[in-house]
Design a protein that fits this description.
The protein is an alpha+beta fold and 384 residues long. It contains 16 helices and twelve strands. Strands 3-4-9-6-8-7 form a six-stranded mixed beta barrel. Strands 2-10 form a two-stranded antiparallel sheet. It is found in: Cell membrane.
Amino acid sequence: MLGMVLGVASLITVLSVMNGFSGELRQRILTLVPHGTVTAEQGQLMQWEPLAAQLAAQEGVIAVAPYISEKAILASDRLLRGAQLTAIDPARSQAIVDLNEVLVAGDALALEQTPFSVALGVSLARLLGVRPGDTVEVTVPRLTVTPLGVFPRTKRLTVVGLFEIGAQADTVQAYVSLQTGERLLGAVDGVTGLQLQTVNLDDAPEIVARLQQSLPDGLVALDWSQSQGSLFRAVKMEKIMVGVLLLSVVAVAAFNIVSTLVMSVAEKRRDIAVLRTMGARASGVMSIFVAHGLALALVGVSVGAVLGVMLALYIAPLTAFTESALGMKLFDPSVYFISELPSVLMWSDVLIIVIASLSLAFLATLYPAWRAARVAPAEVLRYE
């Protein structure tokens, strides 16, 4: 019974924490990820203004903005770091990627007002050792032809803002204005693609799929579940695997039920024989031991479910209390991007865990109950 309590409680608590991590990850990453994008299969998207107007008129689309994206190398006085350089129009992109919501220093409009300026993630700025007002040298995969030869294109950019979402983007992402991106990358009259904002994040896959059917050949529409889908599928698979592994604790408890009932059958052989001689059927004897095993399991699963739900609901205050009692920080935000354990209790998970645990317990009772039903009264009572 205690095994059932521990197994069910740990399953509910751990899966709730994983739900919290998944939701936190989704919220943070999708802060800077558009609901959908439209790009050209080859090369840049030329003459994008008419296409942007056409997409904005589609049902379910509330904003469209151009962007240019390219990998680059950022260098300070002493350090080099690789980065994803994204050029956006802050005014057009405000409804899609609103930098002002995540900026911890500076202003998004400064990207347009200050020529050749850049906004960096706080972790990237920390690695480069720069602050707002400093300059970084950016090198892009474009060539500049000079009388002295061919050189990679480089330019000094002024840091005008720092943003933070508490995810990997803080370490690799850098934003410049669309005009700066066009000059750096030589994108004249062309962009990498168009960013889309739909009425609802969950409806984005359906809306983008409908847009794909109306787009001309050579254009590809992707929603966030496709561009970031591998990450969230990995998180979902991890949750399933952790659930299966923790279910083994319940399986061990179910094995204990088997051993308990087998010993009970051995001790009650005489009583079973007496019942059989008084007219009890084998199926009746079998149902007695099945009910005995299920009663043990039901008590254990019920107590474990209540304990697990309480832990899932109050894991954050318990973590804070533990940290204050120990005088140490269990989760350093600079390392884990979080300061406490997030937890989201899903009643569907609780129901699945309870049903799976009771199913394992029911299977565990079948063999001992079958043994009890096979007791031969004549052999047991021969010398009584």
